[in-house]
Amino acid sequence: MAPLRILVADDHQVVRTGLRTLLESKAGWRVCAEAANGREAVEKARELQPDVAVLDIGMPLLNGMEATRQIRKISPGTEILILTMHDSEHMIQGVLDAGAHGYILKDDADRNLLAAVESLRKHKPYMSSRASAAAATVELSTDGIERPARRLTPREREIVQLLAEGKSNKEIATYLNISVKTAETHRANIMLKMNFHSVTELVRYAVKNKIIQP
Question: What is the pTM (predicted TM-score) of this model?
Answer without folding.
Answer: 0.76
